[in-house]
Write a structure and sequence with these properties.
Elements: H1 2-27, H2 31-58, H3 62-94, H4 104-123, H5 125-133, H6 137-196, H7 219-251, H8 255-277, H9 285-307, H10 310-319, H11 328-360, H12 368-421, H13 429-449, H14 453-460, H15 473-483, E1 485-491, E2 496-502, E3 507-512, E4 515-519, H16 524-537, E5 544-548, H17 554-560, E6 566-571, H18 574-580, H19 584-587, E7 596-600, H20 603-609, E8 614-619, H21 635-643, E9 645-656, H22 662-675, E10 678-683, E11 687-693, H23 701-708, H24 711-718, H25 725-729, E12 732-734, H26 736-743, H27 755-766, H28 787-794, H29 799-812, H30 818-830, H31 835-847, H32 851-863, H33 869-886, H34 897-909, H35 914-926
Parallel strand pairs: 5-6, 5-8, 6-7, 8-9
Antiparallel strand pairs: 1-2, 2-3, 3-4, 9-11, 10-11, 10-12
Helix pairs in contact: 1-2, 1-3, 1-4, 1-6, 2-4, 2-5, 2-12, 3-4, 3-5, 3-6, 5-6, 5-12, 6-8, 6-11, 6-27, 7-8, 7-9, 7-11, 7-12, 8-11, 9-11, 9-12, 9-13, 10-11, 11-12, 12-13, 16-17, 21-22, 22-26, 29-30, 30-31, 31-32, 31-33, 32-33, 33-34, 33-35, 34-35
């Protein structure tokens, strides 16, 4: 029977994971939608425990009732997709008439109707089994703890297998069908066992054994226990949503991280129940409940100083790992270890507390089903309140820090009520409540002294750290605080958002859950180009635009540089909108532009409910390895976009190549082309912008040039080095045919089998920063299919245009990228006498170790008296490279006195030029110690946030 219950717990969590994703696709992945689904799931189980608990007391064989309930769950699971289709149609018919801020009701209705039947049935299983096996009140605590432990440990295994193996391999529907098949087998197994094993007590039968074992608690104790389980349920979910947010900042907010967090949480609950099972009534249950609440408070207070140190510990642990596919399982084990470090001890106390309190509230073993159902109902009222209030109200109101304070306070109240209501409590309140007072004092000291820890946690968290971390936590904090200055912080319903400045680099950036998602630094070009491409290439001036993902609103500002009449900006994280206002100087005040209409919602849900047709849709979400984001790269999403585009509408879709791999980029392109027959690729090398449409986009150079001459458009594009049509066309990576050739044949990404959601975190871990996409600008054949080739036949570039393209490419590409050398060579061919073009090509050749070409360009410029820091820096690098390339025992080199003197002369005139100082130091290190006559001053590395 224990095996059946273990598997039942496993299938229940498979359902919860799969059904929540199904409902997320219908209701959206916003914080509100997640809270509604979780509250409905738990509320249905509580109602089921209350209803079927009474039925179990009257049933001749509660085990047979358990089998029937499991059979019902399995059969409903097979029908769930069809039920959801009907309810989804109901949602789409009702929700559009409800204002944006009032759609909680329809969401709750759809979620409740879809989940009510199976969760009712699930909720009745535990009371039925306890009623079947318990023969005395003493046995109630033992059996409840045993069954609760087995069920919880099965649930932990189920969510782990479903989230890391099953759903990634076979998708949502197949996973649900497999769980349903297992449920049906469990049901038949339970029905077969019911024929062989009678219940411990028949309906109406009095318990046997020593009456002393049948301790019935007074009413005040029962009330204290019921209030205690309510508060315990409230705090358990409040802590859970807070721990998920905290660990997402530390570990990364991938779907794997969420699965491992949930696994550790449920496993701790199961282990706590298992421990209670072994106690065999050695301690009064009400006293034990109070002690467990005190222990829970103490464990959180002791662990809180650890929480803020987790980013440093995790970075150190990662630094010791080799990033490869082979070490991915080891990384998962490391992640799970950190989850257990945070969660295992407090959830252990939570898992032991519920069965202990349930025993207090049980007065008659013959009515244990009804009474246990009542306890379950009280507990779930608390859990629903904790999950809903914790996400929707408390987290935005007072953040992670406030949630921990509220949770600790509620636990202390529950402990105080328990100690006060003990039948044998000391008469003096001080003696009865001293554990509560001690825990409260500890909480005041710890929580009071650590005010502001959440901001520090977000500041030092670095999901993309590829450098060796500082030796100590204190050093990490000091280094971070010396570099960045936080100016905004907010925990909202969906994410923790921070904006900070790095004054030394004149940089402002935005972090979501510890990950930099936008800045006014190196990724500005991507944000600007994504905003302009669709409007420039559109067959007419777009008037109605939808933007998916606000970020710093720089893309929104670029869109609004065009004569757009209406912009719907959809952002899932509310705090991002406020944070984007801090980038007002960079986004042209896009958030508060009267044409901008902000919608805090999931993009798929917003579009499904919007009656508007758009001329242009620009989708610039976060990286697809972040949980939920990959749903914006599925065929289902692209089909929804297609339905909301005008006949000649255009979609602009962003995707990154860094920390990805070629197969994943092909998957996204292939999925997009499955819906849109025409598309081209732009930008590169680390970000791609796909421009897609139903109809071919005929390139009209005169039309594009006219639009680029609009003063606001011209000004906005010029800040990323694009000043004319020639510069814009230089950013095209794929033609329509070339893009299809690159994508090739293969699978399509869908909501049901979201390959990207599970493959992207692995690619992010491996961190390949050089992903090739068969750039047609470098193709041996096919480059003539790009728009630029036809354009230059009629509009040959000038030297100034070639120089602008070089500067743009050199700014955003690696120094040794052939694109940089190609642009420099083009400029040199058009301006053969220009010292600047000679320097550009010389630097590119030097980066590719072509020392002969570099020398032929740089040495004449130096000989002509060129003394700019950039030229001398390149020249010193050339001399250094020649030394290392030729010096051996048989071929010594001279002291290079002239090069050293030249370097010192220019460095003296430009003491703040760090690149020049480094080049001179490198030259001195390549020469005998006497060549430089003394050590050079140390050069500080530029700081990065």
């Amino acid at each position: 029977m224990a095996c059946l219950l273990f598997l039942s717990g496993a299938t229940a969590l498979v359902y919860e994971l799969v059904w929540s994703k199904y409902l997320g696709n219908v209701l959206g992945n916003s914080g509100q939608a997640h809270a509604v689904v979780l509250a409905t799931f738990m509320g249905g189980q509580a109602l089921g425990a209350f209803v079927f608990g009474r039925t179990a007391d009257r049933a001749k064989n509660p085990l047979a009732l358990y089998g029937i309930l499991e059979l019902g769950v399995g059969l409903y699971a097979l029908a769930f997709p069809y039920v959801l289709d009907v309810l989804g149609a109901l949602w789409l018919s009702v929700a559009p008439a409800v204002p944006d801020g009032y759609r909680l009701g329809p969401r709750l209705l759809v979620s409740a109707l879809s989940l009510l039947v199976p969760t009712l049935l699930m909720g009745g299983t535990l009371p039925a089994l306890v009623r079947h096996f318990a023969s005395s009140l003493t046995g109630v605590r033992y059996e409840l703890a045993r069954l609760y432990a087995v069920n919880s440990l099965g649930a932990a295994v189920g969510v782990f297998i479903a989230g890391t193996k099953l759903v990634p391999a076979i998708g949502l529907s197949s996973s649900a069908n497999m769980a349903a098949g297992l449920n049906i087998l469990l049901a038949f197994g339970a029905l077969a066992l019911a024929r062989r094993f009678a219940p411990a007590l028949a309906p109406g039968q009095a318990p046997s054994g020593d009456a002393g074992d049948e301790v019935s608690y007074p009413r005040i104790a029962v009330r204290a226990a019921l209030i205690g389980v309510l508060l315990s349920g409230f705090t358990s979910m409040l802590y859970q949503v807070t721990w998920i947010r905290l660990l997402s900042i530390v570990l990364g907010a991938s779907t794997y991280a969420f699965t491992l967090i949930l696994t550790a949480f449920i496993m701790g609950i199961g282990l706590g129940s298992f421990w209670l099972m072994t106690r065999k009534g050695q301690v009064d249950s009400l006293r034990l409940f109070g002690r467990l609440q005190v222990a829970l408070v103490a464990s959180i207070c002791v662990a809180l100083p650890l929480y803020v140190r987790l980013p440093h510990l995790f970075r150190k642990a990662q630094w010791m790992m080799t990033r490869s596919l082979e070490t991915w399982p080891l990384f998962q084990l490391l992640t799970f270890g950190f989850c257990c470090l945070v969660l295992l001890v407090p959830t252990f106390f939570m898992g032991a507390a519920f069965p202990a309190a349930a025993r207090v509230a049980t007065a008659k073993v013959s009515e244990v089903g009804r009474q246990l159902g009542g306890v379950y109902l009280w507990n779930t009222v608390g859990t629903i309140t904790g999950s809903a209030l914790g996400v929707l109200v408390l987290m935005p109101w007072w953040g992670m820090e406030g949630n921990f304070i509220a949770g600790v306070t509620a636990n202390l109240i529950g402990a105080g009520l328990a100690f006060h209501a003990m039948p044998d409590r000391p008469k003096q309140p001080a003696r009865a409540l001293w554990p509560v007072a001690a825990a409260a004092g500890l909480a005041v000291v710890v929580l009071g002294s650590m005010s502001g820890w959440a901001v520090r946690l977000s500041g030092i968290a670095s999901i993309r750290s590829h450098q060796k971390p500082p030796d100590s936590y204190a050093k990490l904090v000091a280094d971070t605080e010396a570099i960045i200055q936080p100016i905004f912080y907010q925990d909202d319903t969906f994410a923790t958002v921070m904006v900070a400045d790095a004054p030394a680099d004149n940089l402002r950036f935005m972090k979501l859950n510890g990950k930099i998602d936008a800045s006014n630094g190196g990724d500005v070009e991507t944000q600007v180009v994504a905003g302009h491409l669709g409007a420039l290439l559109h067959p007419r001036e777009p008037k109605s635009v939808l933007l998916v993902g606000a970020g710093a609103a720089i893309t929104a500002g670029s869109v609004l540089a065009h004569p757009v009449e209406h912009l719907d900006m959809v952002e899932i994280a509310p705090a991002v909108i406020d944070a984007a206002r801090l980038f007002k100087a960079d986004n042209r005040n896009a958030v508060d532009d009267p044409r901008t209409h902000v919608h805090v919602d999931d993009a798929k849900t917003f579009m499904a409910l919007s009656p508007r047709k758009y001329d242009l849709v620009v989708s610039v979400p976060s990286n697809p390895w972040v949980a939920g984001v990959s749903g914006l790269f599925t065929r289902d999403f692209f089909q929804t976009v297609n339905q909301h585009l005008a006949d000649d509408g255009v979609l602009v879709q962003w995707i990154h190549t860094y920390e990805s791999n070629e197969d994943l980029i092909k998957l996204v392109v292939r999925t997009l082309r499955d819906t849109f027959p025409h598309a081209t690729t732009w930008l590169g090398p680390q970000d791609l912008v796909l421009v897609a449409s139903r109809k071919p986009l005929a390139f009209d150079a005169a039309r594009v040039a006219e639009r680029m001459l609009h003063p606001e458009v011209q000004k906005d594009l010029s800040r990323v080095g694009i000043t004319d049509v020639f510069g814009l066309l230089s950013k095209q990576v794929h033609s329509e045919v070339g893009q299809l050739e690159f994508a090739g044949q293969g699978p399509i990404n869908t909501d049901d089998h979201n390959l990207l959601e599970y493959a992207s975190p692995i690619a992010f871990f491996v961190s390949n920063l050089d992903v090739r996409v068969k750039d047609e600008r470098r193709a041996p054949e096919g480059a003539d299919r790009l728009f630029l080739v036809d354009y230059v036949r009629e509009h040959p570039p000038t030297a100034e245009q070639a120089a602008a393209v070089y500067r743009n490419i050199e700014r955003y590409h690696a120094a040794n990228d052939p694109m940089v050398r190609g642009a420099a060579a083009q400029w040199r061919s058009l301006a053969p006498d220009s010292p600047e073009s000679a320097l550009a090509l010389g630097k590119a050749a030097l980066a590719q170790q072509d020392l002969t070409l570099a020398a032929s360009l740089l040495e004449p410029e130096v000989a002509r008296g060129g003394r700019t820091p950039e030229l001398v820096t390149a020249y010193l690098k050339l001399v250094t490279a020649r030394i290392w390339a030729s010096r051996t025992l048989w071929t010594p080199v001279g002291t290079q006195g002239e090069a050293v003197a030249l370097g010192r002369e220019v460095a003296t005139r430009h003491p703040d030029d760090e690149n020049l100082a480094r080049a001179l130091r490198s030259l001195c290190e390549a020469l005998p110690s006497s060549a430089c006559n003394g050590a050079m001053a140390p050069v500080a590395a530029p700081a990065n946030p």
